[in-house]
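Standup, Tuesday
Yesterday: got the pipeline producing structure tokens again.
Today: sanity-check two examples.
Blockers: none.

Example 1:
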Amino acid sequence: MSRSTGDEMLDEMLGGGVPEGRTLLLRGPSGVGKSRLAMQFLDAGADADEDCLYVTTDEPLGVVRTSLDPAEPITLAAVHRDTSGGGVRFVTADGADTIPFGSLIERLSADEWDRLVVDGAGGLVELAPDRERGRHGRFHLLERLDDHETTAVLTATDDEPGSVARLAHGVVDCWREEIEGDARPFCRVEKLRSRDHDTRRHALAHDDDGVTVSAREWATHEDPFRTGIPSLDDLTGGFVRNGTTLFEHDGTADHWPFTAALAARAVEQDAPVVLVTAPGTLVNRVDDLLADAVAPVTELMDRNLLYLIDPISRSPGEPVVAGLDTDNVVLQEEEGSIQEAFRTLVAELGGRVEEAVAIIEHSAMAHLVTENESRQLYYWADGNVMNGEYDLTLVLAGDRAVAGDRLTAFFSGVADQVMRTWRGSDELQYLSVPKSPAGTPGHTRVVEPLEDPPYVQLR
């Protein structure tokens, strides 16, 4: 269960809101929006008829009412040291009294509160007779809040000791960053125990109504082609129908488990798959992945569900393609150019199918086309194949080391979606989604190999 923060996007970042009965720390410099976010958390509680307490350690109550405009049912309190007689001065709208520091901790963590905000949690230490008792009191406060299942939000500045962040169940960092000469506020979830959450940074927007967390992107693509790899589909939304996906890899990371999963799902829907790759890759790597998932490549060709544009072989009699259905293999050598090979197969499929998937391995045809010709081929496909007689999901698998930085940057710019996989220095394979019209781009995941289809999942 979760309690809403009062901000839809922040709730989403936290996987549903602040975990019920737990403590969330908002950490950042003064003026970035922590106090307003904290008050909005209490406003949401007041709207739900919950008992809410707001305590500030560094502002008078009048300033709180003026600057934060709290909802009427919220109890407001200001605390400061009583320099005249010792103890802590506890001030509310009903009056003020002086209490021992230990009684303050008990009052803040009383089980009558559903929600609590301590604005300026670092100031609690300064209210104690000495810092040691102050740190112990703060620890005792968090313990009691957990025991009473009070959902709490604390705020603290960056210079506060890390003990507050260590004790809190979750931490949201807020900061300012200069962007083109303009200081912009941002936030991100730095920590949240035992719950999947959004770790990307988001912009904060200030207006007269409060502080809101800005959405990073809009899921504009309504009908993606899903792969059957749940973790990939959740991250990307699926591949883009009637659009292009650049699947960038570094040569050491294997893209085929992902693209073959797309091919398998297409076959299951009776949509033919066109592969532009070396025939050796087809009869070895691709066949290994598709045979257990749907059927061997030879059977798929017999069923007219798999076609190969071969940019390598010089004749259909070469051993590597001799065992394949010649009606489903288009040789670039015989057509005269890779573009003519595409044109031949597009014409072959026209009028026969309603949907198709094409997976082009750029490195397999890089010896045939220059950088400029690669651009021209993309524009030709975009103008003559996309949104034509049938829906086409086009995936371009590109190795940056082969294509070069400029061509890879071009494909990234014109593609509707960009996925990137690489192997790190730790020998783990990673996948990120820098660009996508659906899903949640900006995340990075670890690729975990599996023995059975779909052979990979993301962690």
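Example 2:
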Amino acid sequence: MPIGWGMPVVSERCVGCGECAAFCPVHAIRVCGRAVVGKGCTQCGLCVRYCPVQAIRVEG
């Protein structure tokens, strides 16, 4: 069940560094060239906060 403010969306600015995945407490992000947010996302917002290139935004 989502607990946050909306679903994270990864833009083309993503450089595939993996910082978002490293901070994801439920391991819902994988990096395959670019970050991909999976169904297990709880919408906590940590990926948005820790992305060094601001490639992740929230929709919803």
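Quick observation on example 2: The chain is about 15% helix and 25% strand. The chain has a mean pLDDT of 91.
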